[in-house]
Amino acid sequence: QVQLRESGGGLVQAGGSLRLSCAASRRTFSNYAIAWFRQAPGKEREFVASISWSAGNTFYLNSVKGRFTISRDNGKSTVDLQMNSLEPEDTAVYYCAASNYMTAKRTEFTSWGQGTQVTVSS
User: Fold this and answer.
1) For residue 26, what is the enclosing H or E element?
2) HEC profile for 58-90?
């Protein structure tokens, strides 16, 4: 497994931007597909975006397409999520997670970070 740590959350007004970062502890980070999930109060954790180990493939939740961009730097063992045009509905705790292959299925992810809070005010 790989240890993950998120950073970059905060409070922003609707229409604003935030950039989340996920840092990994292992040099084998490049072997993993990485995804971002989010969980709003009272709701289930949902998939947001994922990126393959080579960064050649990305996949997004429909509601964030065109607003969010996932990217990775295997040399630095980081995956970022650039979030633009934020909406109050994006308010949630955001988690990064690692899996052995590209997937959006939450149960297939073996390593999770502790999460970072994103709050979008209207």
Assistant:
1) none
2) EEECHHHCCCEEEEEECCCCEEEEEECCCCHHH
Strand partners, 72: 79
Query: In sequence order, what DSSP letters do the residues of 87-102 get, joined into one string?
Result: -GGG-EEEEEEEESS-
- Show the CA angle centred on residue 25, arms to residues 32 and 99, nearest 5°: 20
- Token duo for residue 93: 């705790």
pLDDT tens, N- to C-terminus, the chain (122 residues): 789 999 999 999 999 999 999 999 876 778 899 999 999 999 999 999 999 988 889 999 999 999 999 999 998 999 999 999 999 999 999 999 999 999 999 999 999 999 999 999 99
- CA-CA distances (angstroms) from residue 116 to 6, 9, 11, 13, 65? 6, 5, 11, 17, 21
